[in-house]
């Protein structure tokens, strides 16, 4: 599972995906597929792709919040998130084969 897979998943399912980095900061992949580290005030001294390899827990937030029916954040493990992101990878590969 790569950062690009999570970015595509967040766009496709209108999700914010959050995870804790090894340095204690939090990374948020927005519903627009942008990876952000909000507390970072300077150029990072780490690589998000490399950090992602060691992450085991993620938090999914629906970006489309309904004020009357708020949706609680959901914690999931790496394997479940990889399964959610996997169909996008296989369907994208199929599209390229047809061209």
What does this protein structure show overall?
It is a single chain. This protein has 99 residues and is α+β, with helices and mostly antiparallel strands. The protein has one domain. Helices cover 36% and strands 22% of the residues. The chain is built from three helices and five strands, in the order αβββαββα. The chain has helices at 3-12, 48-52, 78-98; strands at 15-20, 26-29, 35-36, 57-62, 74-77. It has a five-stranded antiparallel sheet. α1 (3-12) packs across α3 (78-98). The chain is globular and about 40 Å long. Mean pLDDT is 84; it is low at 88-99.
Characteristics:
5-stranded antiparallel sheet; alpha+beta; disordered C terminus; 3 helices
Short description:
The protein has 99 residues and is α+β, with helices and mostly antiparallel strands. It has 3 helices and 5 strands.
